[in-house]
UniProtKB/TrEMBL annotation:
InterPro entries reported for this sequence: Lipid_II_flippase_MurJ/MviN (IPR051050), MurJ (IPR004268)
Region annotated Disordered, chain positions: 1-21, 241-262
GO cellular component, one term: plasma membrane
Lineage: Bacteria, Bacillati, Actinomycetota, Actinomycetes, Kitasatosporales
Transmembrane segments: 24-42, 49-69, 81-103, 110-129, 141-164, 176-195, 201-222, 266-283, 313-332, 352-374, 394-416, 423-443, 449-468, 480-502, 514-538
Source organism superkingdom: Bacteria
This protein's UniProt keywords: Cell membrane, Cell shape, Membrane, Peptidoglycan synthesis, Transmembrane, Transmembrane helix
UniProt protein name: Peptidoglycan lipid II flippase
GO BP, sorted A to Z: lipid translocation; peptidoglycan biosynthetic process; regulation of cell shape
Coiled-coil residue windows: none
Compartments where located: Cell membrane
Length: 547
């Protein structure tokens, strides 16, 4: 294994507050992994129920157009923008004794803004549908579903705020459980009301699921607030804060003990200079899906559904690969707030290595036995063999961009962990989005849904390359060449594992059940990956040290 994983142990001397307790990352990652797996499993069940009840046709396309709004809201308000803004802000607040002032200054304003946005979306639903999917033959069903899902702007925003606050306090159980609650609510609503409401039951389930995401976190959040702020003499208060330019930085009597200056300085961490780049980046990242559905709307009915099912399955390895980064984001933020750039570098390099290994292993599995995976998961009810073949082919194209997706998710946390204004990620994402749009426009006529998926993979891969190149100078001084060398070896291992998985699918009888073939690949692909990684000098057995 390269020296990226063999990071020298950090000296034990130093302040006790420099990092979380020994074993914290491993325990928190295990907890997050378990609940993430449960949420992903329920997400698959949700998609299976939708596929079984509505197949891949005009009704499912209408719902998926409306689902674009919750997907965008989840990216901006839960997964990216809200977390990237508030985890560093809460970390800075904790460094000054407590987060009570930050909550009082931000939560009411954010809730009011989200409520206004929800009302605006409800009123503008017809216009939104025309903009998202101008090729729909009958947009009325999509408009109805969009109005039902509009509530997610408020509920997802509140859920994202609570998640960021709890993660900054190293409380990972409630935030990790939100997708379990979300998908369980959708499935329950679908099964209870699909006969009466049709595909509108799925949209109603999304609205109800959004509310449950906030509700499951409220008890832990209230317990967090009831804890008294840390006294000024507490060691954590001695941590130097991450610099955020603003009027509160000027020295003067406001910095006297007992003044309200610390609250103002913490509030500056979520000022306009930091908020705007994060929000723009998150919107641009989700705009890849907007572009995908815009171009696919003019294809035959079912194309949007095939793209959606393929993306949902293909992105599962990416979601699992980022669970460690989710846990360590507050750790990196605290390290940067304390001025410990070396510790932040070690943590980010380990995270990137682990994320790449996990997503490449998943990519090999997806590419090797895509038809068997789709058949085992979805081919029943209204979802027939033709839908399986189309979805599997699209999924293999999507998989080519999974490494880029995972790297973008891991790298962006490093860029925004210091709470400083930066526009470089926006520029990188703009370049990737531009390539996606150009590729989609050029390829959709000749290649249909495959061309749209190829544009997605090309654009996100370009963004990942640009973010990795700019990280040392703008955020955390990672060793890009060493990291690229390590990742290239794992790419070779993934190629060998893909070949082994493909051979497995060909050697088994054609009459074998799809689930059996997929299970066999679950054995051969990881074994081939480990063997190939060891052969090229990147043994997988060294990876547990990175956790």
């Amino acid at each position: 294994m390269t020296d990226l994983v063999r990071v020298p142990p950090r000296p034990r001397s130093g302040p006790r507050h420099a990092g979380p307790p020994r074993g914290f990352v491993a325990r928190a990652a295990a907890l997050t992994a378990g609940l993430t797996a449960a949420g992903s499993a329920l997400g698959l069940v949700r998609d299976q129920v939708i596929a079984r009840l509505f197949g891949a046709g005009a009704a499912s396309d209408a719902f998926l157009v409306a689902w674009t709004v919750p997907e965008l809201a989840a990216t901006v308000l839960i997964e990216d923008a809200m977390a990237l803004l508030l985890v560093p802000a809460f970390s800075a607040a904790l460094a000054k004794g407590g987060a009570h002032a930050l909550v009082r200054g931000t939560l009411p304003r954010i809730a009011a803004l989200l409520a206004a946005a929800t009302a605006g979306l409800y009123a503008a639903a017809p216009l939104v549908v025309r903009l998202l999917a101008p090729g729909l033959a009958d947009p009325r069903l999509a408009v109805t579903c969009t109005r039902l899902t509009a509530a997610t702007l408020l509920t997802f925003g509140l859920a994202g705020y609570l998640s960021a606050a709890l993660r900054a306090h190293h409380r990972f159980l409630p935030p990790a459980a939100i997708y379990v609650a979300y998908n369980a609510a959708i499935i329950t609503t679908l099964l209870a009301f699909h006969a009466r409401w049709g595909v509108r039951a799925a949209a109603a389930g999304v609205a109800i699921g959004g509310a449950t995401m906030a509700l499951v976190q409220l008890p832990a959040f209230f317990r967090m607030l009831r804890r008294p702020p840390l006294p000024a003499a507490h060691p954590v208060a001695e941590l130097p804060r991450a610099h955020v330019p603003g009027p509160a930085d000027a020295p003067g009597p406001a910095d006297a003990p007992g003044s309200r200056a610390p609250s103002r300085r913490v509030g500056a961490a979520v000022g306009v200079g930091v908020v705007v780049p994060v929000v723009v980046f998150a919107v641009e990242r989700q705009a890849q899906v907007l572009a995908e559905r815009f171009f696919a709307a003019g294809l035959p009915a079912g194309a949007i559904s095939h793209l959606n099912y393929a993306q949902k399955i293909a992105q599962l390895p990416m979601v699992l690969s980022l669970m460690v980064c989710t846990v360590t984001f507050p750790v990196v933020a605290r390290a940067l707030a304390a001025g410990d750039r070396e510790r932040a570098r070690q943590r980010v390099e380990r995270d990137l290595t682990l994320a790449c290994v996990l997503v490449l292993l998943g990519t090999a599995y997806v590419v090797a036995c895509a038809p068997q995976i789709v058949q085992a998961l979805f081919q029943r009810g209204a979802f027939d063999a033709a839908d399986t073949a189309a979805t599997a082919a699209v999924m293999r194209v999507y998989a080519l961009g999974l490494l880029g997706q995972s790297l973008v998710g891991a790298l962006i946390r490093a860029y925004f962990s210091a709470g400083r204004p930066t526009w470089y990620p926006v520029a990188a994402m703009s370049a990737g989005l531009g390539l996606t749009v150009v590729t989609d426009a050029a390829a959709v006529t000749a290649w249909g849904a495959y061309g749209v998926a190829a544009g997605n993979a090309a654009g996100i891969s370009l963004t990942a390359a640009l973010l990795l190149r700019g990280l040392p100078a703008r955020a955390v001084p990672v060793r890009v060449r060493a990291l690229a060398s390590a990742v290239s070896r794992y790419v070779l291992a993934a190629a060998a594992a893909t070949g082994a998985g493909w051979c497995t699918t060909r050697l088994l009888p054609s009459s074998a059940p799809a689930a059996l073939v997929a299970a066999a690949c679950c054995l051969t692909v990881p074994l081939a990956f480990a063997a190939a990684a060891a052969a090229v000098g990147a043994p997988v057995r060294s990876l547990p040290h990175a956790a």
